[in-house]
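As a warm-up, study this chain.
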Amino acid sequence: MDIKGIDGMSVGEVQDQIRQGGKFVIYSYCISILVMTFKRSSDIHFLRSGDSAVLAGLPYTLLSLFLGWWGIPWGFIYTPMALVQNLGGGKDVTVEVMQSLGPG
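Now compare it with the structure written out below.
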């Protein structure tokens, strides 16, 4: 899985950003095709302090909003779940990512 938003940053720089309020998040999205529904997670996004988590997740929210409902029955179940998660700022995975990056 790729991490978007940390291009060219060292681990130390990422740690400094985390201390200032940055975080790593993932978003959910749902795509349905009649009787098949696919619920997936986005790549990890690095958000600096002050970045809007809701705005960063907007493409996934819109994708689910327009293409998620059409599957029966799972589209009606997974789509609202994805929308709630994304409009709540995504799922914070900062602890897990920092553990995998190791010491700076």
